[in-house]
Amino acid sequence: MVCLGNICRSPLAEGILKEKAAKAGLQWTIESAGTNGYHDGDAPHHLSQKVAKLNGIDICSQRSRKITPEDFNTFDKIYAMSSDVIDEMKWIARKKYDASKVELLMNELKPGKNLDVPDPWYGPEPGYHAVYKMIDEACDAIVNKYRNLSAEALAKADTKNLRGFT
Ligand code: 4NP
Questions:
Q1: For residue 80, what are the domain limits?
Q2: pLDDT digit string (tens) for 68-115?
Q3: Which end of the chain is more exposed for a tag (fewer CB within 10 A), N or C?
Q4: What is the CATH number for 34?
Q5: Kind and range of the H or E element at 93?
Q6: Bridge-partner residues for 30, per DSSP?
Q7: Is 42 a catalytic residue?
Q8: pLDDT for residue 148
Q9: How would DSSP label each residue in 99-153?
């Protein structure tokens, strides 16, 4: 799961998808990262932590990191919170960038609409609640999409170990 700062949106996405995958008995490796590196080593924004906690998810131990080109080898699927994040990932990953692994998160919920998860960083608390709801619904769609695929189908889809940002 990737956003710009890896302190507001993608930590929520990491926490939410981890929770849903665990509940579904799926052994996915799920991480998050940012494209700007401004908050490397920082905990998630206090309002992301608060909204997650209100929904029963603890994200306080996450720490921000910048996405690396190597992440394109490590992970099978990489979800971007917004289209500007995709642009930044292309610059960072360069030759390692793999468009087949990248998707806008909201396209899992509303395919082809190319909707962004809006950045709540500049606004007050309600923005964080709205973002939580969007990410929560998109993560439900991800789990429903991949949970029933057989191992064979997963292998064919190159998502045997669905990982990552996802
Ligand atoms: P995020 O929000 O991408 O959802 O983590 C942001 C947080 C910090 C900054 C930008 C976006 N920043 O430029 O510091």
A1: 2-164
A2: 999 999 999 999 999 999 999 999 999 999 999 999 999 999 999 999
A3: C
A4: 3.40.50.2300
A5: helix 83-93
A6: 164
A7: no
A8: 74
A9: GGGEEEGGGGTSTT-------GGGS-HHHHHHHHHHHHHHHHHHHHHHTT--HHH
